[in-house]
Write a structure and sequence with these properties.
heterodimer, A: mainly alpha, 6 helices, 0% strand, B: mainly alpha, two-stranded antiparallel ribbon, 20 helices, 76% helix, globular
């Protein structure tokens, strides 16, 4: 059987959606409350890592294929840079040219919110890919490597 | 529009675009890397002679926001980094076809360029640290790019020692922040010069200076901190070795050390603590010159010999700068300090040219013969005339044979050292210049000249995409020496003046 026991799988199925929603909340309200793109991205990645631990990597890749994660990884960083470039229309790199909006509302503080979202995609998919890469190298045991080295 | 942020934004954009487009377009790495480095190199060359400028990120002025600064010293380094990056990318087009995962290679390469350009233009201590880490992390991965056992080992060793250096630098940045309450370099310099009259009254600042010296010294591979370099530089693919030896150790090590020591800690003022730091710099330099030179003689692996030679030559660069700093700290004449620093910076850019040429030549030889063991090669002059000629020019240049560029920079450094009252150090520098000549004569005797033997028999000249960068760099090596009156006053002297005038830097950034 792939993955962990039935108990872990059942609980994982319960909590994964909540973790993702909480992560999205941390990202979207990053400019108003403690949190932000990095923290929220890590939380969302944790949901996928939990899925991978409980159900095996195939289950996680069924929801977020590695190729999609690679695309999100580069696209998030690129989006961050492009938002910085938009600031150049006002004469400065990363100048906050978007409307500031009303204070303490969700759509306020100009480019901070889009930057947080871009960071969340970048950090979340990168962390997921790092974990996926570690899971791939797990197969060969240390003992087998030593024996191969000695022979 | 102020072009300074472009030096970071263009390579960063290319680095993220390459893997994204690479999923559907196989040649994305080659195309984008060539285009972006060509644009960067052109921008850097066109920046010569423009007045110093500051870009305030996000429109926040200096002590609050992050400033990107471009002055004479920055332009010198930007030219070295971006021109050599372009030539290395052109060389990679053919050379790297033997490797897989090329989109990753070009992406990491552009990240490394972005990090180095960032270090050079940053006017903020923490921002400098972030860019330094960016360039270092990319270079750790690139050293291990071949993923053979010894390459992984070299990459791992480099990563561990590089991380130690990064921790030192971060600790020093934190100490400066604790003492001055600011991370902006110009603002910190002003605080230190007004409140503490140099690093005198505050031992925490001396500690920070020591940590900076050690951290940047490790990145520059000065001798007690050099252990990673002889493994890392030969293991990397040849264009990466050329980047590492040619510009990485200079921009992350020597440049950052100069900027922090001269501009933040204010070397330009007379004080005993500045003299201590300058003495430490001279001692590390002399040690590097001696150990690097002596270790290089016994090497039979061509790239390993070049790596040890890099340690020795970096010693000459920091010797010039250290002697200049010592003259300033002990109240000597400004013109003598200027001469010593000019010699150091001249040797810095010369070394960038001839060492990257030598590493690219070693790559061409390895590509053609499959080995870099000098015992297995002989008589390459007959089989690979162009590569042999460029290797000869670079070897003569680095060993200080007139009229090539290396002679003039070593001459200036040695003359300045004697006039500053260090005849013993000058004698060591002269003796080690002959040792340098000795091991490059060995290279020529074993590999280039002599009868065609061993692996050289089946060797053929490399394709044009590989030898054109070699020829360009060889022309640069000759040109730097002979045409100094043409380019020296435009590139080198503004860099020297920028380094000497810390007060002007503060005025430039803070307005």
């Amino acid at each position: 059987m792939k993955g962990m026991t039935l108990i872990v799988k059942t609980i994982t199925d319960f909590v994964v959606a909540f973790i993702v929603v909480f992560g999205a909340y941390i990202v979207l309200y990053g400019h108003l409350t403690p949190g932000g793109g990095f923290a929220g991205g890590v939380i969302i990645a944790c949901a996928f890592i939990l899925l991978m631990l409980a159900h095996g990597s195939d289950a996680a890749f069924a929801i977020l294929p590695a190729k999609v994660a690679h695309i999100l990884d580069s696209a998030g960083a690129l989006a961050f840079l492009i938002i910085g470039w938009i600031g150049m229309t006002g004469g400065f790199f990363f100048l906050n040219v978007f409307g500031r909006g009303e204070m303490f509302r969700l759509l306020s503080s100009g480019m901070i919110l889009p930057l947080n979202i871009a960071i969340a995609f970048k950090v979340g998919s990168s962390l997921f890919l790092v974990f996926a890469a570690l899971a791939m190298f797990r197969r060969r045991s240390f003992r087998a490597m030593i024996e191969e080295e000695l022979s | 529009m102020n072009p300074v942020p472009l030096y970071v934004a263009i390579p960063l954009g290319a680095a993220f675009l390459i893997p994204l487009l690479g999923m559907w377009w196989k040649k994305s790495g080659e195309t984008l890397a060539v285009l972006s480095t060509l644009v960067l190199a052109t921008m850097a060359i066109l920046a010569v002679g423009t007045p110093a400028m500051v870009h305030h990120m996000g429109g926040w002025t200096a002590p609050l926001g992050i400033a990107l600064v471009s002055d004479g010293l920055t332009v010198l380094l930007l030219i070295a980094i971006n021109v050599i990056a372009f030539l290395c990318i052109v060389f990679s087009l053919k050379y790297m076809t033997a490797y897989t995962g090329l989109t990753k290679y070009y992406s990491l390469f552009m990240l490394m360029v972005a990090g180095m350009n960032g270090v050079v233009v940053s006017g903020d201590l923490f921002n400098l640290f972030v860019f330094l880490e960016l360039a270092s992390l990319a270079s750790y991965a690139l050293v291990a790019f071949g993923v053979e056992a010894d390459e992984l080992e070299a990459g791992f060793k480099y990563m561990i020692l590089g991380s130690v250096a990064s921790v030192m630098i971060l600790f020093a940045v934190g100490t400066v922040y604790a003492v001055t309450g600011t991370l902006n370099m110009a603002d910190a310099a002003r605080e230190i010069s007004t409140k503490f009259s140099g690093a005198e009254t505050n031992p925490a600042l001396l500690l920070a200076a020591a940590f900076f010296l050690m951290g940047f010294g490790l990145k520059a591979a000065l001798v007690p901190f050099h252990a990673w370099l002889p493994d890392a530089h030969p293991s990397a693919p040849a264009p990466i070795s050329a980047m590492l030896s040619g510009v990485v150790i200079k921009s992350l090590g020597v440049y950052a050390m100069c900027r922090v020591m001269f501009h933040v800690f204010g070397f330009a003022s007379t004080s005993p603590s500045s003299a201590i730091i300058a003495n430490a710099m001279i001692a590390l330099s002399v040690l590097s010159i001696v150990v690097g030179g002596l270790m290089a003689i016994g090497q039979w692996d061509f790239k390993r010999l070049l790596a040890y030679s890099s340690i020795g030559q970096i010693g000459y660069v920091t010797l010039g700068i250290g002697v200049g700093a010592h003259v300033l700290a002990t109240g000597g004449t400004r013109s003598l300090a200027a001469l010593a620093i000019l010699g150091g910076l001249f040797h810095l850019i010369n070394h960038a040219a001839f060492k990257s040429l030598l590493f690219l030549s070693s790559g061409a030889i390895q590509y053609a013969t499959g080995t870099r063991d000098m015992k297995m090669l002989s008589g390459l002059r007959k089989r690979m005339p162009i590569t042999a000629a460029t290797t000869n020019i670079a070897a003569l240049s680095i060993s200080g044979v007139p009229p090539f560029s290396g002679f003039w920079s070593k001459l200036i450094i040695i003359v300045a050292t004697i006039r500053a009252g260090h005849p013993a150090i000058a004698a060591i520098a002269i003796a080690m210049a002959f040792v340098t000549l000795a091991y490059y004569v060995k290279v020529q005797r074993e590999m280039i000249f002599g009868p065609v033997r061993g692996r050289a028999e089946s060797a053929r000249e490399v394709p044009a995409a590989m030898y054109v960068p070699l020829i360009i760099l060889a022309i640069v090596c000759v040109g730097f020496g002979l045409l100094y009156p043409v380019w020296g006053s435009r590139i080198l002297e503004p860099a020297r003046d920028a380094l000497l005038n810390g007060a002007e830097y503060v005025k430039l950034v803070l307005g």
